[in-house]
Write a structure and sequence with these properties.
Helices cover 20% and strands 24% of the residues. Strands 4-1-5 form a 3-stranded antiparallel sheet.
Length: 102
Amino acid sequence: MCKPLPYDDYQWVDEREQSLLDVTSIPNDAPVGYILDCNISYPEHLHHHHSDLPFSPRTEIPPDKGAKFPKLLLTVRDQKRYVIHYVALKSSFEKGDMKKES
């Protein structure tokens, strides 16, 4: 699997444009891609099905009392200001009823 990587000519999309953007309608091999900063809602009915491999990993310090260093955690919690590539976001929509809250 080989995909082109961006290397220049980055442009910011304002919040209004991002709210109108429908990532499900963009092909995975589109010449223009998006990396989104959004809030993701993880519905409770998906928690059991996705508990082994959730879609939204995050680097955080574990809630254990002895934990001091950040680790990559896979949780089914809602994510605030989650940065994700549009193809990964599309995949999470297709595999469940996750919601992007802009």
